[in-house]
């Protein structure tokens, strides 16, 4: 068979999503996620103007060859726009291959290595009572592991606090990770690292006192600390036995993680903004991290992320794939299939999409007693309702940004 058409579908049910739908000459369809939070239309243009014309008439069965052609053939490699576009093609071709074979994608990747994927949810609160309520709510939903984000005294609005209210479509959904907010300009938030470092250990002490030693707790520093500040936080949090400390310092400065490692035994997770194995190569080889946070959507698809995780397995480093609401249900399905098949799975981030998103993307995954499973429908197990998607046109949206107390723009 050959590829007959490739359509780029942009929809905004609860937030903006970019989906590539490939159709073969025999009418078999495959979906891929190309969503790049806050910069969606850049990927749309890359796909429509540069990638789709190359796909028409191509052999849909040649997944690896197509990936290498799109990556190497452009000469200008890497970057989030390029890799999100290639990822969408890669996912869609795996989806098609699974449908033709009559098998779920995880079977094509070697079969299941486990019965389900332990996932973590996002709990938050401006103050402790609100945070405790959020943790209990997540436990009632079945989560066995929980990320803890907290407000900081004197700061009005910071990353990851649902009570601050993200401007999203479905008011029944609690968002502990901000989608890009709809509007003509990004929202400005404030930040004070010293206040954060002084406040956070007491929060985890209170959480452990309330919920006990057994529940796996995670925390996201979101790139906002210098290396020595990150080292201090990791050391200060050691008594509370974190599952991981995520993005403790800007990951572009990979040598900085060596300094953090020298000062703390708190496990480190890095990589949600990485795009290729080259971003991970040295920090995996030097064992400076414990979990690979790459996303199928932003790492070029299932094919290259599997290779990255196979490399990480050589160093006893596990997966912790990115999975907030800016990964579409298609991207989440791809992550589940990959996570189910690899041996060195660690944990899967999982945030529930809104009702309208679930109506646009019809999904086959299950969520049972804290574990995800992609289901056994052939392919990825997600179908796109194009008519429903058409009811929600793209809306301009931006992620927030940070300023320090003196007005300096800081890492968000």
Count of all domains? 2
Rounded mean pLDDT is 95
CATH homology group of the largest domain: Enolase-like C-terminal domain
CATH class of the largest domain: Alpha Beta
Radius of gyration: 21 Å
Strand residues, percent: 15-25%
InterPro entries: D-mannonate_dehydratase-like, DgoD-like, Enolase-like_C_sf, Enolase-like_N, Enolase_C-like, Mandel_Rmase/mucon_lact_enz_CS, Mandelate_racemase_C, Mandelate_racemase_N_dom
Domain Mandelate racemase/muconate lactonizing enzyme C-terminal: 128-267
Protein name: D-galactonate dehydratase family protein
GO molecular function: magnesium ion binding; mannonate dehydratase activity
Keywords:
20 strands; TIM Barrel; alpha/beta; mannonate dehydratase activity; Enolase-like, domain 1; 412 residues
General description of the model:
InterPro entries: D-mannonate_dehydratase-like, DgoD-like, Enolase-like_C_sf, Enolase-like_N, Enolase_C-like, Mandel_Rmase/mucon_lact_enz_CS, Mandelate_racemase_C, Mandelate_racemase_N_dom. One of its GO terms (biological process) is amino acid catabolic process. GO terms for molecular function: magnesium ion binding; mannonate dehydratase activity. Strands 4, 5, 8, 9, 10, 11, 12, 13, 15 and 16 form a ten-stranded mixed sheet that branches. This protein has a three-stranded antiparallel sheet with strand order 1-2-3. Strands 7-19-20 form a three-stranded mixed sheet, with no helix packed on it. Helix content is 35%, strand content 19%. The protein has 13 helices and 20 strands. It is globular and about 60 Å long. Strand 4 (117-125), helix 5 and strand 5 form a beta-alpha-beta unit. With 412 residues, it is α/β, with parallel strands linked by helices. The protein has helices spanning 40-55, 63-72, 80-101, 105-108, 128-140, 193-211, 227-236, 256-263, 277-285, 302-313, 329-341, 355-360, 386-389, and strands at 3-11, 17-24, 29-33, 117-125, 145-150, 181-182, 188-191, 217-220, 244-246, 268-270, 291-292, 318-319, 348-349, 361-363, 366-368, 371-373, 382-384, 397-398, 401-404, 409-410. The N and C termini lie far apart (46 Å). The protein has two domains: 2-104, 2-Layer Sandwich (Enolase-like, domain 1), CATH 3.30.390; 109-376, TIM Barrel (Alpha-Beta Barrel). The model is unreliable at 163-173 (pLDDT under 50).
